[in-house]
Amino acid sequence: MYIILVYDIDQRRVGKMLKLCRQYLHWIQNSVFEGELTEVKLKELLHHAKSIMDLSYDSIIIFTSRQEKWLDKTVIGLEKNNLDNML
Amino acid sequence: MYIILVYDIDQRRVGKMLKLCRQYLHWIQNSVFEGELTEVKLKELLHHAKSIMDLSYDSIIIFTSRQEKWLDKTVIGLEKNNLDNML
Q1: Which of A66, B66, B71, B74 yields a CA-CA distance of 20 to 30 A from A42?
Q2: Residue ranges of A for the binding site for Mg(2+)?
């Protein structure tokens, strides 16, 4: 499945969450990730994510699409992809 | 078209951008918006957005899907929708 994941995580926990998400997905903007994941891998990611989050304060939104071609992406301004490779 | 818009905007400009995006889309997380827009309305939004942005520093990513049903959305943790109505 094609995944877009966006998070809003308190700064005390955001470093851990960034590290976790980058193990599964591509980092495309400050708090936005995308990529292909199987259902099993997505469940695994969300399981780990929940253990990092304060569920009464933080949030994650996941958009899933069965096929990437059903979505078009347009970037305006700075592309983080380039930065990602340098980090 | 169904739109997901995510931005990463310097704090000096983010207030203006938030106000702009909320005129066109639903605010669902800190820097994430979704909704239905015609192609013309999307162009209009992006035209205004570019006039606010510093294109060498800020970024906007727009995902478009011809049909909302091609995307599933899952929210984990706090749902901002509820907050949005109160603001």
Answers
A1: B66
A2: 8
